[in-house]
Write a structure and sequence with these properties.
alpha/beta; 10 helices; 9 strands; binds flavin-adenine dinucleotide
């Protein structure tokens, strides 16, 4: 099925066991891959690797490690990618990553396009390379046009697929796809879907990554106060309707930011079959 799920690397044994259970439940949907995030500056490198290794050894769903290049040396990236090849990994999510505050040495890569070029130079077509896309503009970009050009440049460096930052404005996604298609991009641009389960957390994430939560959604969520069940129900309906709208307009693949939980990603994805 054309869905994929993203996890963050669990920090302790209890969370590892819990994530294993989540994977067992999600695999019923026959996902295209399970991706695992990578902390800025390599802070979760070992934990990401362990989780990828666990997914590969289960042998049901291919693993896709995220790899952020900021602060890294080419030799380290090459050696990590070789280790991934030894695990049988064929998908990589290639990112720049957020520049951690106070970091002076940004390493051998300035932007994700340089990482994509490097992976293609070193490993030819071994990996299917996925890159990030921002339908509502990357927060650092000086202009929309400039961000679109940088995205196109990243794709032309050798990306096979893109995954978007999450959004709740489908028109922003459609417009982004139209714009980059007219600039020569013809790889799949998979919408990243963030389920809504918690108002405060969603507001915090969205401030950090520049995703807009429409006013009417915020107002509704706030009106539920501490009533988590109503927040979950409303959040589910909003995201489900958005996914169905995307699908009815031709979107075939969906990437879920699962937050290491089965619910509600499983139900949302199931409705798209
Ligand atoms: P880039 O493509 O390099 O873009 C970053 C900024 O630089 C943009 O403003 C762009 O317009 C500009 N730019 C790009 N290329 C050039 C160029 N050649 N010259 C000048 N300017 C340029 N972060 C993590 O730390 N770990 C993760 O696992 C992770 N996973 C993610 C998964 C997805 C699907 C998404 C959408 C984001 C993820 N992020 C992750 C967040 C991401 O690392 C940040 O958004 C980061 O700030 C940008 O990374 P990027 O790969 O998009 O960078």
């Amino acid at each position: 099925m054309p869905v994929s799920f993203e996890f963050f690397p669990p920090r302790d044994e209890i969370s590892q066991k819990s994530l294993k259970k989540v994977r067992e439940q999600l695999k019923a949907l026959n996902p295209e891959y399970f991706s695992v995030t990578f902390g800025a500056g390599g802070s979760t490198q070992d934990a990401t690797f362990e989780t990828i290794s666990a997914i590969q050894s289960e042998g049901f769903v291919p693993a896709a490690p995220h790899l952020s290049c900021i602060g890294s040396k080419k030799e380290n990236i090459k050696s990590l990618l070789r280790d991934y090849i030894n695990l049988g990994v064929k998908h990589i999510v290639a990112l720049r990553g957020d520049i951690p505050s106070g970091v002076r040495d940004i390493g051998d890569f300035n932007h994700a396009n340089e990482l994509v070029t490097f992976i293609r130079e070193e490993f030819n077509d071994h990996f299917s390379i996925m890159v990030a896309a921002y339908p509502e503009k990357h927060p650092e970009a000086t202009s929309f046009r400039n961000d679109l050009e940088n995205f196109v440049n990243k794709v032309k460096s050798g990306a096979s697929q893109a995954i978007t930052q999450y959004f709740y404005n489908p028109d922003a996604y459609f417009r982004f796809c139209d714009d980059v298609n007219s600039m020569g991009v013809n790889i799949p641009i998979t919408p990243g879907i963030m389920p809504i389960t918690n108002c405060k957390q969603l507001k915090r994430f969205s401030e950090m990554c520049g995703a807009e939560i429409p006013k009417w959604i915020i107002q509704r969520l706030e009106s539920y106060g501490d009533d988590l069940e109503s927040i979950r129900q409303f959040g589910y309906e909003v995201v489900d309707e958005m996914c169905l709208k995307l699908q009815s307009n031709g979107v075939k693949n969906f990437h879920f930011y699962s937050m290491n939980k089965t619910v509600p990603s499983f139900e949302l994805a199931k409705n798209l079959v």
